Structure formats: structure tokens, C-alpha cells
Amino acid sequence: MQVASRRSVRAPRPASVAGVAGTDPASVRTWDRLAGSYGRQERREQHAVDTALRLADPGPRDTLVDLATGTGLVLRRLAARPAQAVGVDRSAAMLAHVGPLSDDTRLLRADARDVPLPDGHADVVTISYLLHLLSPADRAAVLAEARRLLRPDPASRLVTVTVWTGRAPPARLAGRVLAAAAAARPAALGGLRPLDPTADLRAAGLHVDRRVELPRRGYPSLVLRARLPAGRTPDLRTP
Ligand SMILES: C[S@@+](CC[C@H](N)C(=O)[O-])C[C@H]1O[C@@H](n2cnc3c(N)ncnc32)[C@H](O)[C@@H]1O
Which residues belong to any copy of the Methyltransferase domain (predicted)? Predict the structure, then answer.
């Protein structure tokens, strides 16, 4: 397994989310600290990740980029092997826990807001359990980067997984409880803040064509598949 770390030629973007060291649920420090125990909860993500991969449906000629790959659950759950897969994460400790991968899969230590891969590199981009950790500005930056990475073809697809409790009244109450707990302990529970990123995807110029809500079997989750609009050559640099 190969871990590459490349400095971007672009200027670094400002630090995000809560801004207070140690309370940012997306910070490198948070995930370096959680890396050793992260594998113990992966079974709660597995059903949603498998659903995401079913919707993503990577083929043997496809290139897949998994943004915020963490300990590599998405890469390890790939049933059909794409031609190439790249797992991107900015926490070296999380990447160190990925474990064995196939030869056509590599890891890249980089920020998902500024990925050192060329425009149109991927047929499939996956983002599993990241977006709900981020501020709206950082969500927009990550989704703009995901869009830039997608090959400019309506068949290319982005699949996201977020924590989501649903819109029905009991689910909304559960969501509010979860959001309050996440706000009280952002570094530990910030990842459990429910989010439906449909509006973020739309703002990034992507349209959602599949939506699967998974209230049971693991974290209550939402899986969305989004595509570039048909019949239009996208300007990859402008969301
Ligand atoms: C909740 S874990 C999800 C890991 C994996 N995708 C999964 O589903 O198990 C969140 C991951 O996002 C990474 N992360 C947070 N902000 C990031 C960013 N701006 N760029 C790259 N990775 C980031 C963290 O290092 C962590 O590994």
C-alpha cells in the first residue's frame, strides 16, 4: 500500500468549523486521536457504506476517489474492483490504520478541499461520513472539489453518506437530541450531527438522482447519489 503526501501548489484555505483547537470535529488532531479506536465502530457504518457502493456501482474500467477515506472502510468494502481507487484523507494516523489494500488502490494524504489530483480524474467520487462534520463553507469547498474531480460526463457520479434521522416528527426529535449532544461535545460527537446535503449538492451544480434513507442497522444515515447535469459541459473550476 502506498501513501503519498503532496503539497498543493494552491494557497491553503483557512481553518474551518468551530475554530477552537480540540473542539473541531473535523480537525486533524481529533482524527489522529480517534484513529486507534475508529475500527471498533465501523460495523455501524457498514450497511450505509454498502448501500453507497451499490449506488456508486464502480465498474472495472472506472477510477474511484474516496474523499475522507479515514481507515478505508469504503475501499475495503468495494465488491467490484474499479481499475483504480484513491483514498484521500488529511489524518496520517487514520491512513495508517487502513490495512492491506489491492495493488490498484493507493492512499493520498491531502485535504478534501484541495486534492492534488487532476480535473476529471474520477468516474466515481464517494464521501462517507464527512459532510456533517463540516461548516457550510467547508462543505461547499469539498463538494466543489468533488465536482472538479468528476470526469465531465453525465454518467460520472458522486455518492455521499451522512448521519440523518429523517423528517417524520419522531425522527426530527431524535435528530434534535443528536444535534444537541454533538454541539455539547463537538470533538467526540460532532460527527453525529444530522445533515441532508441535498441543497449543498445542488449549490455545487450537481443533481441528486437517488436518495436512500437508512434509519436502522447502524447509524441512522442518508445516502445520496448525484450527477453532473446532462447536456452541458461543466466549467470544472466554477461550482
Ligand atoms: C467520520 S470519519 C469517516 C471516515 C470514512 N469515510 C468512513 O466512512 O469510515 C471522518 C474522516 O474525515 C477526515 N477529514 C476531515 N476533514 C477532512 C478534510 N478537510 N480533508 C480530508 N479528510 C478530512 C478525518 O481525518 C476522518 O478520517
Answer: 65-153
